[in-house]
C-alpha cells in the first residue's frame, strides 16, 4: 500500500491551491471598446429619458390646447350673440321711449299703447330665452360694475349713493355686462 509519503503527487494535490492575485487596475475586461459601449449605453439611456420627458410635455400641451379650444368654442356659443343683442337693445329702448311718450294720452291711443307694450314684452321675453337679463336698478345702491352714473342729485329722502332714476336700462348676457344702466344717483344734501 502506498502512503502519502510515497506519492509526491498526492502531497501537491492536498495542498491549498495557489491563486494568483489579479490586478484590477489593468483588467482586460475594461478595454477602450467596452468603455465606449458603456458610455454609449449611458448616452442612449439619457436620450430615452429626454424623449419620455418631451413626449409627456407634448401630451400636456396637446391637452391644454384641446381644453383652450373647447373653452373658446363655449365662449363663442355664449357670447357670439353679443352684437345682435346690442342691436336689439336699441329696439327695446325705442319701444320704451314710445311707450313713455304715449303714456297718459287719450283713449284713442290705447290700442297703440297696448301694441307697443306687447311688442316690448315679447322682445324682452325673447332676450330672456337667450340668457339676456335686464338691469333696472331703481331704488338699489349704486354699483359701478353694472351702473353708469350720469349725474348725482342731492336728495334728503334717500340714502346717499342710491339709484334715484334710470335713463336707460342695462343688460347682461350669460352673466357678462353688455351695457351698463345709465342712472341718476342720490347724494347727501349739502
TrEMBL record:
Q: What is this protein called?
A: Protein GrpE
Bilayer-crossing regions: none
What is the species listed in this Swiss-Prot or TrEMBL entry?
Simiduia aestuariiviva
| Compositional bias annotation for Polar residues | 1-12
Low complexity composition bias: residue spans: 52-63
Which SUPFAM superfamilies does this one have?
A: Coiled-coil domain of nucleotide exchange factor GrpE, Head domain of nucleotide exchange factor GrpE
The UniProt function text for this chain reads: Participates actively in the response to hyperosmotic and heat shock by preventing the aggregation of stress-denatured proteins, in association with DnaK and GrpE. It is the nucleotide exchange factor for DnaK and may function as a thermosensor. Unfolded proteins bind initially to DnaJ; upon interaction with the DnaJ-bound protein, DnaK hydrolyzes its bound ATP, resulting in the formation of a stable complex. GrpE releases ADP from DnaK; ATP binding to DnaK triggers the release of the substrate protein, thus completing the reaction cycle.
What GO terms in the biological process aspect are recorded for it? protein folding
Protease keyword on record: no
Q: Name one Pfam family in it.
A: GrpE
Q: Which UniProt keywords apply?
A: Chaperone, Cytoplasm, Stress response
Q: How does it assemble?
A: Homodimer.
Q: What is the lineage of its organism?
A: Bacteria, Pseudomonadati, Pseudomonadota, Gammaproteobacteria, Cellvibrionales
Q: Name one GO cellular component term.
A: cytosol
* Keyword Transcription regulation in record: no
The protein's superkingdom reads Bacteria
Molecular-function GO terms, alphabetical? adenyl-nucleotide exchange factor activity; protein homodimerization activity; protein-folding chaperone binding; unfolded protein binding
What compartments host this protein? Cytoplasm
Q: Which residues form a coiled coil?
A: none
Q: Which family does it belong to?
A: Belongs to the GrpE family.
Amino acid at each position: 500500500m502506498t502512503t502519502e509519503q510515497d506519492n509526491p503527487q498526492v502531497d501537491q494535490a492536498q495542498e491549498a491551491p495557489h491563486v494568483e492575485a489579479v490586478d484590477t487596475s489593468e483588467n482586460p475586461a475594461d478595454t477602450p471598446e467596452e468603455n465606449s459601449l458603456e458610455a454609449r449605453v449611458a448616452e442612449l439611456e439619457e436620450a430615452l429619458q429626454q424623449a419620455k420627458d418631451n413626449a409627456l410635455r407634448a401630451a400636456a400641451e396637446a391637452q391644454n390646447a384641446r381644453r383652450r379650444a373647447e373653452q373658446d368654442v363655449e365662449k363663442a356659443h355664449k357670447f357670439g350673440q353679443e352684437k345682435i343683442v346690442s342691436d336689439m337693445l336699441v329696439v327695446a329702448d325705442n319701444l320704451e321711449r314710445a311707450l313713455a311718450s304715449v303714456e297718459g294720452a287719450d283713449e284713442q291711443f290705447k290700442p297703440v299703447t297696448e301694441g307697443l307694450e306687447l311688442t316690448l314684452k315679447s322682445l324682452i321675453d325673447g332676450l330672456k330665452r337667450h340668457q339676456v337679463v335686464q338691469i333696472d336698478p331703481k331704488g338699489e345702491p349704486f354699483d359701478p360694475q353694472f351702473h353708469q352714473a350720469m349725474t348725482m342729485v342731492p336728495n334728503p329722502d334717500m340714502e346717499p349713493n342710491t339709484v334715484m332714476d334710470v335713463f336707460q336700462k342695462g343688460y347682461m348676457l350669460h352673466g357678462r355686462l353688455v351695457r351698463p344702466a345709465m342712472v341718476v344717483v342720490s347724494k347727501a344734501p349739502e
